[in-house]
Design brief:
Radius of gyration: 30 Å
Strand order of the largest sheet: 5-4-3-6-2-1-7-8
Helix content: 25-40%
Number of strands: 22
CATH superfamily of the largest domain: Histidine kinase-like ATPase, C-terminal domain
Bound molecules: adenosine-5'-diphosphate, magnesium ion
Structural class: alpha+beta
CATH topology of the largest domain: Heat Shock Protein 90
Strand content: 15-25%
Number of helices: 22
CATH class of the largest domain: Alpha Beta
Length: 621
């Protein structure tokens, strides 16, 4: 039998290795950006076309390469960054494996122009599928420009495996943001199909976060700073009330390299303990500096997971640093549910104990509706068809259990209602009179009411969002969503990505009773609307969903139903500016506190706050 073992040709070996380094266009962006940073660039511009599938170009003003280095750079294991095995333990550069350029060149067409400050002329090199096609002198600026074209042109299976442009672009933006956050001192730009997506001038860490995440984040950031012999931690954390259900604004960096670290994430979460609604995570941007010897960046091919020598010790330092920052900002005492005299904000666990009386309240009352008694009358609907009179009785019952001093419950919210309880008159007529003074509206935005410990303010839109959200989720989880057939189906037209998304989620929308079908390419008919919704059209709901998908609030992941519920609730909720009657406010109030999480909106924003009596007294000193 003849020998069968052969050495793989370099081009094949490179392709196989490339699979590890280059998984998608975003990997190219990351590797090229890291190379530019390692080369000391202070200005870097990234240009992508078709989400990087057709072009990823990176232009830097770094130190450039000589002719020989330009060619060498594309060889496997060619790196200027480590010389011996020992160097592996003191890595301070982003790259070090000497694999990226070789891998990229194995699966794309690469063109590079580069020049060092010492040379008059630069070099221009073209490579396709690992072989050099041309190399010649060229006039160019000091620095390096690399264009990577037609990614996976020679591996059709991988090219087909690439996701929709919107998804690939999102990945690119994620990589870009991580690098931008870690390097605020560098001028950075990202352009997609000739549209500038980010133009980030050189700045400090805080400004860079603001540039990337948005102005509103500025006064939500709390400084974190701690210095120990083992580790220095700097950065910012978000105030608990700005914590979101969605993940995405959580960043750890170690020695300026982005890392994922579920264990340290937990450390952060424990420090926030009790300050967050269930399932929400605070934003954080935390930069660790450690001796490179205590980390091993080598454990993951794309290097986002990093192992530390003494992780439990770092956990404690991190957690203490965060508690301290929260404490300094007075956040812990102001919403510490365990302290007797604190401001009492109802939280999920507490309110969840009152399931019983809730049933008496019409769960589908629409504050917009003046006359009709419920949203839908479909057989399996969650609507109980109760009218307002009944719901008033329901409201009384909400507190019934507390009338005869049965208030052993530690439930702060119910204690809040004590005063109110004592003044509820017997007859319904008087009850209404009393109630007409109970709520008032500020700026047509907040509902205000007196409670035992002070003045309670409720954000009307967020409150209604929460109510609708739970209604949708209940209906879906109990498989009791209903759909109202529309008399005249709405015709909607969508192209490209919007149409693709709509096709993807059509099945999910049906679950909610939003019935859509595509009758011809790009033409959609909405022929059924969710049973509990009125005064809103199918196109309103769908537009909301499409735009929430663009901002990443809907990601087609496992939380899709929650996300759709949240999106529909946001669209359908009472807007700010809407004048509300006493009865509408009462209903909304009742229904809000019948929710399992009345304190926070589906996107994690504060719904209810109380200005404490003491604070009010202070105003009169
Ligand atoms: P690594 O970054 O792991 O060393 P790469 O394949 O990414 O490996 O790059 C190989 C080498 O090419 C680098 O070590 C560096 O010397 C050189 N190089 C790559 N990109 C640039 C750049 N933008 N400017 C200057 N030199 C670069
Ligand atoms: Mg590199």
């Amino acid at each position: 039998m003849s020998d069968i073992i052969q050495l793989l040709p370099d081009s094949v070996a490179n392709q196989i290795a490339a699979g590890e380094v280059v998984q998608r266009p975003a990997s190219v962006v990351k590797e090229l950006l890291e190379n530019s940073i390692d080369a000391g660039a202070t200005e870097i511009k990234v240009i992508v076309k078709e989400a990087g599938k057709n072009l990823v170009q990176v232009i830097d003003n770094g130190k450039g390469m000589s002719d020989t280095d330009a060619r060498m750079a594309f060889e496997r294991h060619a790196t200027s960054k480590i010389r011996e095995a020992n160097d592996l333990f003191s890595i301070t550069t982003m790259g070090f494996r000497g694999e990226a350029l070789a891998s990229i060149a194995a699966v794309a067409l690469v063109e590079m122009k580069t020049r060092t400050a010492g040379e008059e002329l630069g070099t221009h090199i073209e490579i396709a599928g690992s072989s050099v096609i041309s190399q010649q002198p060229v006039q160019c600026a000091v620095g390096t420009q690399i264009a990577v074209k037609n990614l996976f042109f020679n591996i059709p299976a991988r090219r087909r495996f690439l996701k929709r442009n919107s998804t690939e672009l999102r990945n690119i933006i994620n990589e870009f943001q991580r690098i931008a956050l870690a390097n605020p001192h560098i001028d950075l730009e990202l352009h997609h199909n000739d549209v500038p997506l980010f133009i980030l001038p050189k700045s400090n860490y805080r400004q860079r976060i603001v540039h990337l995440v948005g102005k509103s984040v500025n006064n939500q950031l709390i400084n974190v700073e701690t210095r120990t012999p083992l580790i220095t931690i700097n950065g910012f954390i978000g105030k608990p009330e700005t914590a979101r259900k969605k993940t995405g604004d959580q960043f750890f960096f170690v020695n300026n390299r982005y890392m994922r670290h579920p264990y340290f994430h937990k450390a952060v979460m424990t420090a926030y303990e009790k300050l967050l609604p269930e399932g929400a995570a605070p934003a954080y941007f935390l930069f660790f500096e450690v001796d490179p010897e205590i980390i091993d960046v080598n454990i993951h091919p794309t290097k986002t997971e990093i192992k530390f020598e003494d992780e439990p010790a770092i956990w404690h330092i991190l957690s203490a640093a965060i508690r301290e920052s929260l404490g300094k900002n007075n956040i812990v005492p102001s919403i510490d549910f365990d302290t007797d005299d604190s401001i009492d904000i109802p939280v999920a666990g507490h309110a969840a104990e009152i399931v019983e009386p809730v049933i008496e309240v019409d769960p589908t009352f629409n504050p917009f509706e003046q006359e009709k008694s419920s949203f839908s009358s479909g057989g399996g609907s969650v609507s109980s068809g109760k009218n307002k009179k009944e719901s008033v009785e329901g409201w009384e019952q909400l507190y019934a259990g507390f009338e005869k001093d049965e208030r052993q419950s530690s439930n702060d919210f119910y204690e809040e209602t004590e005063l109110v309880q004592q003044t509820i008159p017997a007859s319904e007529g008087e009850d209404r009179a009393f109630r007409s003074e109970r709520f008032f509206q500020l700026k047509n935005k907040y509902i205000i009411t007196a409670v035992k410990s002070g003045l309670m303010l409720i954000d009307q839109k967020r409150a209604h969002e929460r109510v609708l959200f739970e209604l949708f989720m209940d209906a879906v989880t109990s498989e009791r969503s209903t759909s109202q057939k529309t008399l005249f189906p709405e015709e909607l037209y969508f192209g490209g990505e919007d149409a693709a998304l709509l096709r993807d989620i059509m099945g999910e929308l049906h679950v909610f009773g939003l019935e859509v079908k595509e009758t011809e390419e790009g033409k959609f008919l909405v022929y059924g609307l969710p049973g509990h919704l009125e005064n809103i059209s199918g196109s309103d709901i769908i537009d909301g969903i499409l735009s929430d998908h663009k901002t990443g609030e809907i990601d087609l992941g496992e939380k899709i139903r929650e996300q759709i519920s949240a999106s529909m609730a946001k669209k359908a909720a009472i807007p700010y500016g809407k004048v509300m009657t006493q009865e509408e406010m009462t209903e909304l109030f009742d229904r809000l506190f019948a929710c399992s999480e009345p304190a926070y909106s589906p996107s994690g924003k504060i719904i209810v706050t109380i200005i404490g009596n003491e604070d009010i007294d202070k105003l009169f000193i």
